[in-house]
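User
Here is a favour to ask of a fellow structure person. I am asking you to supply a protein in sequence and structure-token form. Please set it down just below, with no commentary around it:

Assistant
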Amino acid sequence: MIDLQDTTSIYIMADWIEYYIISKNKSLSKSTITDLLQAYVQDLKEETIDSIFSELTLRNRLYGKASPFVVNGKIIEPIKKLENIPELLMCLIFSLEGVKKKKGINDGTKLFERLSNEAAKVYLGGESEVIGFPNARSLKEQIKSISLKTSESIGHKTPKPKDKDKGVDIIAWKSHEDSRPNQIILLLQCGAGINFPDKKPISIKAWRNFIHWSVDPLQGIMIPSIPPNETLSDLVDDYSLVFDRVRIFKAVYNKNLSDPTLRKEILNWCKKKI
């Protein structure tokens, strides 16, 4: 069980309650939530509990039919089993503790990239690929492949080894299926860690030099948290298109993924973490 590390944020505390309900598949009453949080928060106020309940009620609406829980009065009840929603639990784990890097242990970041890739593919109703570092192919080879698949001209610049991926983890596109350029292109980065706001926005200019897109690509970021509206507005200013936990999870929920082993791999990773 992950400890609650931040008791100053209503949103993190709501994440922890959401994580608790899903990982343990247990209903929680308002009084039980109070008891759980008192182990971490001194002088816990009733209005704090009310705010957490309000946030979870909002999330219940945001998740819609994919919601893993329902709020019934003063009780929050799980309505989906972990085996069916491991993608959501993985996002919650990242939101609560960030990326834990230990030698020889899978930190889950590549799983998050693959999950984000699936979400982008479903969202666009098109194609997408995980690119960048580390990869069996060089960035130059990956760019050439993407240029062929999107029917866009290869650029006049070749990325240097130090460039790695220029901030891009996923390229997604919505083809007209006529083997011609001029289509929607998304350049996406994945921010699984807690400090994702420190990530630099993607350099569209650099990528226009790598591939001569006939339409400027739209940049975006994938994050495992659910930011409050004011934070979301700031993220949009920096990263344009924001896929948070709600959007990622709803995109893949109850879908047959193109990455057939991903859901099982995520489930196994989550079980080791909890």
Notes: The two ends are 5 Å apart (CA to CA). The first helix runs from residue 10 to 24. Residues 236 and 242 are 6 Å apart (CA to CA). The longest strand covers residues 184-190.
